[in-house]
């Protein structure tokens, strides 16, 4: 038996993994040891399933600076990481869950836009509360990506007290949706009709972010929203 074969296995490490660009996900704990994960790919596959990632996780990053983790041995006990597919790392305050509005800049309308593309209003922190939709002074919407039947809808909470700037909203949707076709130019209802302004949005409804291409009529809700889940109960009112 070689000297390598006689080497002691490294001790188990406890790590926490967040979803890239998701300010609502509080992180999932993992125990990493050689018996459970023989390769880095095996660990990434487990992360994909456990955090319910819309696409396969292929990269891990450090949460503060976005440094890429190259192999299983680089994981440190007690540390946190951000799981991503092939998209770029999105900067959020992952380590202070519920305070994501700290990263960003204010535009001329007084809206705070984070570097990850999430739109923050003055009362956005209260909109993150997962309790009643009717007492927080917030509207909630869910948005699918046009033609994408692999990614679940992403949440879009907006303050009732702040005037909605449509161009700003489309810019934010562009960053969040990350459509292959590029910028989000319109927002459509599930029947394909286009929404022309914020006054047409209905609290709790589902919409589809569309680029320059035509709206693709697909069973988004039926395939991507679990019919008996709390997710449907929360967003579809």
UniProtKB/TrEMBL annotation:
Residue intervals of the Doublecortin domain: 13-95, 139-221
Pfam assignment, any one: DCX
PROSITE patterns cross-referenced by the UniProt entry: DC
GO biological process, one term: intracellular signal transduction
Example of a GO cellular component annotation carried by this entry: microtubule
Keywords, in A-Z order: Repeat
Domain of life: Eukaryota
Protein name listed in UniProt: DCD2B protein
Gene: Dcdc2b
